[in-house]
Automatic annotation (TrEMBL):
Pfam families: DUF3119. This is DUF3119 family protein. Keywords: Membrane, Transmembrane, Transmembrane helix. It comes from the Bacteria. The chain crosses the membrane at residues 20-51. InterPro entries: DUF3119. It comes from Candidatus Synechococcus calcipolaris G9.
Length: 136
């Protein structure tokens, strides 16, 4: 008889983070004064990211990363299909990258970056991936 000493992983829903949208909005203000055609698109992009941060949620389950818009699940990414993940610029995390068997994904970090990193390390540790020296 085998017993599993590891408790099952609880589902974790990441808290939103508005750092990137607010940072872009603040940066766009002086750019609008300098050049409206440069500042306005950056400001509009920050509004878009703010709306995404307010409506999208990432949920880490025991077996999948689920993406929700409101209460509707829009995507599911099973960990068993992941080959690699990385958070770019750990000092100021702005981009989350992960590669599955058949596709790659880039997401702006519109969620709590510390909580994101913790969930990734717990549920999909990089040591599980078959890697080569050029994988990172």
């Amino acid at each position: 008889m085998t017993t599993n000493l590891t408790p099952p992983l609880e589902t974790v829903r990441l808290a939103p983070s508005f750092r990137i949208p607010l940072g872009l909005a603040i940066a766009s203000v002086p750019l609008v004064w300098f050049n409206v055609w440069l500042g306005l698109p950056i400001f509009l992009f920050s509004v878009f990211l703010g709306i995404q941060a307010a409506t999208l949620r990432l949920e880490f389950t025991a077996t999948d990363l689920d993406v929700y818009r409101g209460s509707t699940q829009i995507r599911q990414f099973p960990y068993r299909q992941w080959q690699h993940w990385q958070i770019f610029w750990t000092a100021v995390p702005i981009l989350f990258y992960f590669r599955e068997v058949n596709s790659i994904h880039f997401l702006p970090i519109l969620f709590d970056p510390v909580q994101l990193l913790s969930c990734l390390q717990e549920r999909c540790p990089r040591t599980l991936f078959v890697s080569n020296p050029n994988n990172d």
